[in-house]
Amino acid sequence: MNSFDDETAAAVETAQSQLPASVPGHRVVFGFDGYVDRVREVVADRHDPDHYDRLDTLAGFGDRVQTSVAADSSLSVEWLQHGTRTGGHTSHLARAFGHWGFDPVMIGMYGDPVLDVFAEEFADYDLHTLGEPGYTDAVEFDDGKLMLIENGDTMDLDWAALTERIDRDRLRALVDGAALLGTGYWAETPDLPDVLDGLAGLWGDLDDPPETVLVDPGDVRKLDEARLNSGEDAIGRLADRTRVVVSANRAETQLLAGTYGDDDLVDATLETQARTVFEALDATLFVAHGVDRSLVVSEDETTSVAVPAVDDPELTTSAGDHFNAGLALALVAGVDPAGAVVVGNAVAGSFVRHGEPPTFKAVRTFVDAYEEKF
Q1: Out of 87, 98, 247, 342, which could bridge 37 as a Cys pair, Cβ 3.0 to 4.6 Å?
Q2: What is the structure's pLDDT at 138?
Q3: Radius of gyration over alpha carbons of the chain, in Å?
Q4: Closest C-alpha among 242, 328, 331, 235 to residue 283
Q5: In terms of C-beta density within 10 A (0-12 exposed, 13-18 middle, 19 or more buried), how is residue 48 classed?
């Protein structure tokens, strides 16, 4: 079981003392993806047309694949769809921030014209489409998830394509005065470094630029080494202008560390890997989040915060996005980085327990009762 240690206790105290009783309804901007998620589960055994047993572990699914490979046989899998929802960085974070009373601006791939699934859910938001969305079949297991992704037009997005759809003056007006700019996912937007360079060039024209830019790398295993290396300078250049926070899960952190460091880092501690990535990217903060611990690296220190375990999660797909939403919420609200990680854990923890974004009151309650959840 995860341990509530002294380092975690200090971070929780920071969150409890600095997270305000309410949050202002600032404008926040999110770009540049868009997905339609189909939520699935895999059938283990079918008894009759109305009754079946669910395959409840990703490990069990892997065993079936391995058995089929060993037998030199094809594999047939029945799956069921349990709903359709909007997904991706922009949808998940805008939904959460809208839930908290902020004013989200969404710039991403929502269809051309905008698909009903986006238009209906985000009717009250300022939504700007850049092209066609991707599609994700998200298969839920108790010990993880399997994401089968068909990418949309994010694969071809660079600064020129962005400003062709939304001209520079309009983009400047959308970003100027916002409290936060969130961007994701680099893995599905290979030329995101070019977009970040464009934004860095835009910064000087803003009267009131966002104080925080969040960058979510996503599953960077999809990017080649040249593209990963191009991100180093782009993130650093933007960090010269504003606070840039890069937030990655444990697997993404490990891969980035191996790219920017050496092969020995594959077996290093998460703290060592995260420090390596932080120094390479030259971001203001690097955050690594996982199921047992989350940590934040700054120029001065590294803080590791234990995560309360969840025995029976309701939903795990997009838990990382909800961590990022909580992290960004806390930073916008003026919480120090260590406390912001606690709030990120709280939002993700509440989401996986209940299957929906928590209210701000629920976030506050989770933070106040953080120790009791161990």
Answers
A1: 87
A2: 87
A3: 20
A4: 235
A5: exposed
In which residue are the tokens 């908290």 written? Answer: 100
User: In whole angstroms, what is the distance from residue 360 CA to residue 100 CA?
Assistant: 6
Q: What is the DSSP string of 162-196?
A: HHHHS-HHHHHHHHTT-SEEEEE-GGG-TTHHHHH
**Rounded CA gap, 69 and 321, in Å?**
34
What separation in angstroms does the CA of 78 have from each of 54, 59, 61? 10, 17, 12
Q: What is the pLDDT of residue 97?
A: 98
End-to-end CA, the chain: 8
- The span from the CA of 85 to the CA of 361, in Å, is 24
pLDDT above 70: residue 369: yes
pLDDT 10s digits, 262-305: 778 878 999 999 999 999 999 999 999 999 999 999 999 999 99
SS (H, E, C) 45-97: EEEECCEEEECCCHHHHHHHHHHHHHCCCCCCCCEEEEEEEEECHHHHHHHHH
Structure tokens at 198: 């464009």
| Among candidate residues 308, 349, 301, the one with its CA nearest the CA of residue 4 | 308
The amino acid sitting at 366 is F
Paired with 46 in beta bridges are 52
